[in-house]
Amino acid sequence: MSDTHPSPIPNPPVSPSFPFSPSPAAPPAASSPPPASSPDGLWDAVDGLHAWLDARRAVDGREALLLRVLKLSEEVGEVAEAVIGATGQNPRKGTTHSWEDVGSELCDVALTALVALRSLTPDAGEVFTRHVAQVTARSLGPDARATGRERRAAPPSR
After folding, report:
1. Nearest partner of 84 among 102, 57, 110, 66, judged by Cα
2. What is d(CA 70, CA 47) in angstroms, rounded to the nearest whole number?
3. I need a labelling partner for 19 at 20 to 30 A (CA). Which of 45, 81, 98, 131 fits?
């Protein structure tokens, strides 16, 4: 952060009610992460993107973290734009997007959220896995694993 442009958001001490502190900037990755075809590959990709963004950020500290989280709103807006374009809801523009575009934008939202989570903690993979397990158990109960496999086997409907 430059001395001429102080952050308008102070960096208060991390309190027990906020379990994560922004992770320090990681050095840029020396090589490309492996493809995200497995859970480990996904988190390698998230770590690589996190390091790449940190090496190129214009601000530091809490402001950088807040901007990283705010990026989610931008990505969600792009999903909305794609849905409106896929359904032709703007009479001036007509059909401008496909449902594949909507899927791509949803992937951008998910990836942006994972990178924002990684910005909160270097243990993002464990935090996310634990949270998914809690939500799954709460929502689907003890048969959650079998239900998930059955759903994946069925083709999605549109």
Report:
1. 102
2. 19
3. 45
